[in-house]
Design goal:
Bound molecules: 4-diphosphocytidyl-2-C-methyl-D-erythritol, adenosine-5'-triphosphate
Oligomer: single chain
Active site: 8, 132
Shape: globular
Number of domains: 2
Number of strands: 12
Protein name: 4-diphosphocytidyl-2-C-methyl-D-erythritol kinase
Order of helices and strands: EEEEEHEHHHEEEHHHHHEEE
Number of helices: 9
Strand order of the largest sheet: 1-4-6-5
Function: Catalyzes the phosphorylation of the position 2 hydroxy group of 4-diphosphocytidyl-2C-methyl-D-erythritol.
Binding site for ATP: 90-100
Family: Belongs to the GHMP kinase family. IspE subfamily.
CATH class of the largest domain: Alpha Beta
Strand content: 25-35%
CATH topology of the largest domain: Ribosomal Protein S5, domain 2
Distance between the termini: 26 Å
CATH architecture of the largest domain: 2-Layer Sandwich
């Protein structure tokens, strides 16, 4: 069985408080974007895992795909599988690529082996693998809260807009990014702000990680300002970075500045 794990962007990210377990409560809006890895899982006589494409740091034995398989194996008699991952989503990019791979592994195994797990049950397995992971079970625009792994419906659509992703060739560790934030209760809930038209977001919707990361990596703010210069109606960092995205009213021909970076563009 083949799946195409996709990336996400965060529209707004307000980090509201540090939790007793060391994690942070936040509110954000997850929005899926069609930049995809490829994941194939087939039954085999022996479990194996092969990766191509972008190099993934760390021991392949700890890859989130294998961890997802092992987490289901605790509760189900799964046969060995041959897994193949072609990695295209940039890493340390705030695009949730590893989390998407893990969630798609759970979804594919559920289907392949008729495990009949509900959305809620799959989300429970996903939460144990990473905070972003549960989003990719439903994989549709959702408002999230608590650790970013509890969801509510939200009426946000970027249909017809062009999304530009810029990966500025630097990886940012999520744990390090969280270590330097100062949580703050927001005056207005992101949920309320997101109900206003996209044209109002520029002055209202923020990603709290920008405050601590922009001074350390000035290129991030430069990219954001260049996206506005190029005509974006809204631009922001996604998640804990390093990707900066721009939302445009139409497809855009970007100036030379962007040629030094990995740029991806799609009308959604
Ligand atoms: C920045 C976001 O991408 C926004 O969607 C996510 O919050 C990050 O989710 P993730 O990459 O799945 O993160 P996890 O693998 O769960 O956690 C990595 C590390 O980030 C920190 N972390 C993560 C999520 C959260 N709500 N609070 C945290 O403080 C913790 O130090 C944790 O050890
Ligand atoms: N299948 C995978 N794809 C990418 N990274 C993986 C994978 N499995 C494990 N990892 C580990 O997870 C780390 C980063 O994961 P990921 O790409 O999700 O982070 P990110 O781009 O910072 O996204 P986010 O912050 O939105 O969760 C890598 O350093 C890598 O070692």
């Amino acid at each position: 069985m083949i799946g195409f794990p996709n990336a996400k962007i965060n529209i707004g990210l307000q980090i509201t408080e540090k939790r007793p377990d060391g994690f942070h409560n936040l509110e954000s809006c997850f929005y899926p974007v069609p930049l995809n890895d490829l994941l194939e899982i087939i039954p085999a006589s022996k479990t194996s895992f092969e990766i191509s494409g972008t190099d993934i740091p760390g021991d392949p034995a700890t890859n989130l795909c294998l961890r997802a398989y092992e987490s289901l194996k605790v509760d189900f008699e799964l046969p060995p599988v041959q897994m193949y991952l072609h990695k295209l989503i940039p890493i340390g990019a705030g695009l949730g690529g590893g989390s998407a791979d893990a969630a798609f592994t759970l979804r594919l195994l559920n289907e392949q082996f008729n495990l009949a797990l509900s959305i809620e049950q799959l989300e429970t397995y996903a939460r144990q693998l990473g905070s972003d992971c549960a989003f990719f079970i439903q994989n549709r625009p959702l408002y999230c809260f608590e650790k970013g792994d509890r969801f509510q419906d939200i009426d946000v659509s970027l249909r017809g807009y062009t999304i530009v992703l810029v990966y500025p060739n630097l990886a940012i560790s999520t744990a390090e990014a969280y270590a330097n934030v100062r949580p703050q209760k927001p005056v207005t809930s992101l949920r309320t702000l997101l109900q206003n038209p996209v044209g109002t977001w520029r002055n209202a919707i923020r990603n709290d990680f920008e405050t601590s990361l922009f001074p350390v990596y000035p290129i991030l703010n430069t990219v954001k300002q260049e996206l506005y210069q190029a005509g974006a109606v809204y631009a922001s960092m996604s998640g804990s970075g390093s990707t900066i995205y721009g939302i445009f009213e139409q497809a855009v021909s970007l100036p030379d500045f962007f040629h030094s970076y990995q740029v991806w563009q799609k009308t959604v």
